[in-house]
Design brief:
Length: 665
Amino acid sequence: MNGKGAVLVTIVSLLLASQVILVSVAVLPSQAMGLALTIIPPKLPADNGTYSAVVVSLVDSNGLPSAALSNLTVYLTSSQTNIASVPDNITIPVGSEYAVAKAKTTPTPGITAITASSHGLMSDYAQLTTATPSGFPSKFRIFVSPSSLLERADTGTVRVELIDAAGFPSKAITPVTALLSSSNVSIANLNQGSLTINPGNIYATGTFRSSGSYGQAVITASSTGYGSGGAIVTVVSPYHCTSACGPYELRLRLLPGTLPTDGRTYSVLEVGIANSLGLPTVSSSNTIVQLSSDKPGVVAIPDYVTIPAGNISVLTPLTTSSLQGVASITALTSSLVPGNVSVKTVIPAPSRLQAYVAPPSTFVSTYGNSPILVIQLQDSDGNPARARNVTDITVTSSNSSMVRGPIQMSAGVGVDYVLTHLTASGSGQSVLTASSQGLSSSQVDLQLTRSPLVDQLTASIPEETLYGADTMYTNGTATMTLSVSFLGQPVQNLNVSWTVTGGSVSPNPTKTGSSGATSTTFKPNKVGTANITASASSPLTGPIILTHFIAVFQAQTTTTTGGTTTATATTKTVTKSTTATTTVVSTETSYSTVTSSTTFTATVTSSTTIATTATSPTTTTVTTTTTSLSTSAASTFAYATLGATTIVILTVAALAAWVLRGRRP
């Protein structure tokens, strides 16, 4: 190595020594070794519905997502078909990471184990849970107060409550009219034929009267599209009590016993008087009852209520809060046994969103394998809850380079979850956040790995110019090579077509061989930038389109006279957006410096290096003039011409490579 090379290597070594270089090696997915089973959402409505919720994916030995090299059959089973059933098998298509199977639930809530298996792969299983969906009003529940009356003319209250399929109170979305009927009007004669539950309310209240006959009657509420409900009214026989028939205890009853956490007041607490047999009785004087709640922050009640003389019971208001819980209500009076009842408050369903992603980790390709995002509406217990009205959902990503957003989704009335395939790119991790007005938001991690498809288009140019890599002269050729591998295996017999601007290629088309590579030869036909594009497609790889750019320069001209070869270099102007110092170094080791915007002439009789080193941002124009060189050795001359008459703008790394490669960038 000469002195200049030694100095340059020292400079490069110092630069490298002054920095900490971190090298990150990405592990690419490999061939599948097992199956992964994901249920999204993991809890489905027990309603005889069919849901695309069983995701079967492929993983390699490191747990990274893999893909099918050919169509793959996967066999599915359910341990409890009375809970949910799945198809006998599904197919993961060639090149795909996963397939989605449908699960059909039954009205019976419970848990079943879904198992996926395939020949030569490790099997997997996951639990699928079904629950009665909540949130959407679907049926009536009826209450009467008092439920037991004395054999006398009296008046009672009938209340029709709107509930969801899970039995929780559900506020009316639109006015709901319930038709009322009595099975025995002599026992319970209704004062109205219907009750209307207005939007935002959970019940409506009416009245009935008894005529003095004893027995039982069933009051029924019904409406098209809703499950009917009923309650029994009992008029006690006059012979029910022969002794100790006077007031003995306080009896508390709720109609209904579960209320929404909405801060509203509901007249649902029945405070009554009963004898020692638990049957209704009356007091000959007003009965003042003291009331208390052990959790006034959940349910608040009045301190006192009065049962008028001659009355069996009275309805008392309760006020809920925004807190969910259970409160114990106690009733006390000086002469009667205390009464107690518990009231439950729940956050109206749906109350929150829950986001799920499947498969847990995936790769993205032009062929598909898009991650699946599911947003489920849930109640406060995590059970599926159906939308009471159209619910707009916004999903944002913490990594916009992977998933651009926001993503807009919408759950229709009566729907408990929505699904979409994400348009994602790159690799890494992103946190997806789902939000909707009035509902608690949810977050889920999205993991993307690098695609197992490795494709590369390269150019091999025997005689590159001093303008750098991927440059050539108009009289040269370049060998273009496309190599393709998938899951670490070469992709064979892939038909490749070639298109080019600024020249021609031959042969065209070509086909990849056993190494997964194929080549063609490019010949330029003009000066400028040539674009060479390789295009291919297969079920395994999906579409492949790669383009390589080559800068083509006019070939140098030479003439020979009497055994002496003379070369002429053309004038060239180089513009660089930096403040530059241009140094001309000759073999005589003489140095001269040319600064910005200066024209200089270099005429040398042996190989010379002209290097420009950038120092700070500004504009520098360097112009060379025609230089002639004579030598008797044509081979030596050709080499010297390239070294003596071309200006090269180099970085430190490129300058080092130039010296080590014999001054040929």
